[in-house]
Queue: 2 jobs
Job 1
Amino acid sequence: MTKTETRPSSITATVDFEADGVHHGFLQLPYSRDDSAWGSVMVPLAVVKNGEGPTALLTGGNHGDEYEGPVALFDLAQKLTAEEVSGRVIIIPAMNYPAFCAGTRTSPIDKGNMNRSFPGRPDGTVTEKLADYFQRTLLPLADVVLDIHSGGKTLDFLPFAAAHTLEDKDQEAKCFAGVAAFAAPWSLRMVEIDAAGMYDTAAEEMGKVFVTTELGGGGSARAETIEIAKRGVRNLLCHSGILTGEIEQAPTRWLDMPSGECFVFAEDPGLVEVCRDLGDLVKAGEVIARVHPIGKTGAAPVEYRAKIDGIIAGRHFPGLVKSGDFLAVVGVAE
Ligand code: CA
């Protein structure tokens, strides 16, 4: 392991992170393959720096089929001027760039799920090498880290910003202050199904102020959710003292995910009959979805019920489910 940990990354940034001004460039990752023996993966990035001050690291496209983040961040990278900034903004609109170009959650090169690849490996696959570069080079530069997610092709969510319960309560308070500043319509205290290998966990373990989001889903983006992303990014930069100006306030409702009881998973494959929509209030024991067997007619659907009282905050998006698929998550109003 020591050898891996001390091995330098093969990735180079084509911009100087310490130079003042607006710099557009790439993370260049050598990737030898059939169609380009000495080729590279080129991950676009922008660095906007002006003097001393905090650094914000902004990412979208951690999963390649989520679009609010890339839209808001390509837009910001094109518009942001150095004069507006005190400190530094590092913008990577599509973190798992091969996945983003393919429109898939994971990388078509190595099937790597960026958000299960941390801390990464400098001698690993393309996705692991990118994760390692974030782990050892980019995260240490940052004070505030925002990773913009949406549901992708298989999930849909109420638009929310979120942070996690942390052992360090001072750090946790700063993360939730960032969530509040983002001012999404919903704000969540989030529980992960499996936090191992996540970028979130890597940033939090380094003591960073970390804010994440789920701004919609279904493998596309809406005008409303794109506006939420754009406003949230600027608000978080204002909150961090990197941009001057007022935070654009917007009403938010706080939701908690108190336990694993929030989640409902399918145990049977079939056709989903959605019985409660995003934002609907539900009671424990209430049927939120039925799954119809599709092999033949005449069989009764299997009913899936909420385990707690709350609000439907997320759901499975496609019309068919397999055994083990996430069906819904119920958030509890704080
Ligand atoms: Ca995601």
Job 2
Amino acid sequence: MAEVIWGLATSHVPSIGAAMDNEKTADEYWKPLFDGIAPARTWMAEHRPDVAVIVYNDHANAVDLDLVPTFAIGTAESYDVADEGWGRRPVPPVVGAPELSEHLIRELMDESFDIATFHQLDVDHGLTVPLSIYCPEPGDAWPCAVVPVLVNVIQYPQPTAARCYALGHALGRAIRSFPPDLKVAVFGTGGMSHQLAGARAGLINTEFDRMFLEAIESDPDKLAALTREDYIREAGTEGIELIMWLVMRGALNKNIARITDTYHVPASNTAAGLALFENLGDEGKGSVAA
Ligand code: DHB
Ligand code: FE
């Protein structure tokens, strides 16, 4: 049976991808951020999954704002890298895992999560930047297949944090009920605090981010209890992306081990964070708030 071996929570700021694509990672501005994520990269390279289930949001690049599904999963054989206005990032196309995607959709529907399906999808920085954080030099091909899981965090009303956490629990159960012996990693992307427009543009809330980085491991129920207005007030209009970390957390067991984390301000106008967790043991499997 498939198993979830680790979970990665990471920001997906587009300029992190651009820094890599333009070989600026050793520049004074970027070096502290890339030094911070280096231990996670080393550990992940030693613990390669067969498939990455990447929970992310499209930013009106591939998904038109006329129709934004609350939750969706891609079922394609492969996903092109989206052109976000500056040409496609120079990274490989993303190979899908259609049989696992279809299994996850079926299982989640049976658990009353009404999942939309993308048979075709270009993937934007929300997905490709986390892949680059996982694997900085993919060469011609990424080292794993990918199942994209999309969450609407950009158009009101977004799903609640509690619903995202519950989706994570169901996602974990669905992965574990897939018969092939696959090793699966789950990525929760976005955040940390940031607001790109409006009167509070540039908002950073370090105290909230630090609390979140700790509680995502030790007290996810507390984070799941926050309202969407709490997220937007504390973390900014785009900081609500953090609810996608709860999908990842829900897919892991109660017992996890923090391998490493890092927090850096600023990456563009954003507080960038990363936390990497190994999934431990059977105890409490799929538990916390089933
Ligand atoms: C930016 C975009 C994002 O999607 C994000 O999560 C953080 C920052 C940006 O354009 O700077
Ligand atoms: Fe984003």
